[in-house]
Amino acid sequence: MTITIYHNARCSNSRRALELILASGAEPHVIDYLAEPPTRAVLADLISRAGLSVRDAMRTKEKEYAGLGLADAADDALLDAMVAHPALINRPFVVTPLGVRLCRPGDLVLDILPA
């Protein structure tokens, strides 16, 4: 069983999700998405599979959001901004055989962890 977490160690939600994954006995593939941002296609796929809008997957309180004038931007521009500035990607995204979830709060990972 493969579990992947797009992780930011400074984020309490991300740390909590990772903690729960590890407690389940799984050995997840941990991607530091700030150092290794997903491609535009991967990011769009994660967002779609999680059932989110592109804007729902964006961190609007980051300085880049205002600095890039993204408040009224279209989805394509938002995706491009998130790839160029991965701090704008909301976290953590977790991928398991049971689906994809933006785990905010981190306990939401429990919904997609295999028993």
UniProtKB/TrEMBL annotation:
Q: Which UniProt keywords apply?
A: Arsenical resistance, Oxidoreductase
Its recorded reaction(s) are: [glutaredoxin]-dithiol + arsenate + glutathione + H(+) = glutathionyl-S-S-[glutaredoxin] + arsenite + H2O
Q: Name one GO molecular function term.
A: arsenate reductase (glutaredoxin) activity
Any Pfam family matching the protein: ArsC
Q: Which InterPro entries match?
A: Arsenate_reductase, Arsenate_reductase-like, Thioredoxin-like_sf
| PROSITE patterns in the record | ARSC
Broad class of enzyme this protein falls into: oxidoreductase
EC number(s) from the headed UniProt entry:
1.20.4.1
GO BP field: response to arsenic-containing substance
* Record PANTHER family: ARSENATE REDUCTASE, ARSENATE REDUCTASE-RELATED
The entry assigns this protein to a family as follows: Belongs to the ArsC family.
Q: What is this protein called?
A: Arsenate reductase
Which species does this protein come from?
Massilia atriviolacea
What is the phylogenetic placement of the source species in the record? Answer: Bacteria, Pseudomonadati, Pseudomonadota, Betaproteobacteria, Burkholderiales
